[in-house]
Amino acid sequence: MRHAQDQMKKITGGLRRVCRLLLILGLTAAGAMAQTVSGVVTEADGTPMVGVNVAIKGTSRGVTTNLDGQYKVEVASDATLIFSFIGFLGQEIAVDGRTAINVTMELDIETLNEVVVVGYGVQKKSDLTGAIASVDRDNLQQLATTSPMQALQGQESGV
User: Fold this and answer.
1) Could you give the number of structural domains in the chain?
2) Is the Cα dihedral 98, 101, 106, 111 positive or negative?
3) Which residue from 94, 91, 98, 124 is spatially nearest to 36, judged by alpha carbons?
4) 114 shares its domain with 99
5) Quick one: 95 and 118 in the same domain?
6) What separation in angstroms does the CA of 80 have from each of 62, 65, 92, 93?
7) 39 and 100 part of one domain
8) Under 8 Å CB-to-CB from 8, ≥6 apart: which residues?
9) What pLDDT, on the 0 to 100 scale, is given for residue 65?
10) Which strand (E) or helix (H) includes residue 111?
11) Burial (CB count within 10 angstroms: exposed 0-12, middle 13-18, buried 19+), residue 99
């Protein structure tokens, strides 16, 4: 009889340890659970920014802002968001359990001069091997054309 009681104590003691371990693991995992973070990305003057990259640091996941500068992304409560856009300074902001993070992007004058928009993407000026021509948009707006391509024709040599 004594032997059976000792065996029961060992079994219940082992079960208690397992339950404690599961409880601790469950509480730890609850702190890292995913949550939805949303917000608006604007310029310094309050204008919403379209197409800002909102990436989750340390992962390959992210989203871009919509036409109203809004974004919504699911992250861990201890994650860090990286906001980036061509011509603006990038920002890293810790979530710290918040559900709403609004961001104001600041112009990066130094890198803005290094970037050129080409017909098939965006490249740095230093990476281009050909000539670059600039067309003043005010001149294009004064022309009566049916397409942007017609407006560009004849404005610069080679276009």
Assistant:
1) 3
2) positive
3) 98
4) no
5) no
6) 11, 17, 7, 6
7) yes
8) none
9) 95
10) helix 109-112
11) exposed
Residue-range definition of the domain harbouring residue 78: 34-104
Tell me if 39 sits within 8 A of 95, measured CB to CB.
no
In this structure, is the dihedral angle defined by the CA atoms of residues 43, 115, 83 and 90, taken in order, positive or negative? negative
Cα Rg of the chain (Å, integer):
28
Distance from C-alpha of 18 to C-alpha of 25, rounded to nearest angstrom: 11
Q: Mean pLDDT in the chain?
A: 78
Residue 53: inside a domain, yes or no?
A: yes
Same domain flag for 50 and 24: no
CATH number at residue 38: 2.60.40.4130
3-state secondary structure of 118: strand
Query: Smallest Cα–Cα separation from 122: which of 75, 79, 85?
Result: 85
Tokens 């371990």 belong to residue: 21
Distance CA 97, CA 37 (A): 9
pLDDT digits (tens, 9 = 90+) for 60-80: 999 999 999 999 999 999 999
Question: Which tens digit of pLDDT belongs to each residue from 23-37?
Answer: 665 545 544 568 999
Residue written as tokens 């130094």? Answer: 110
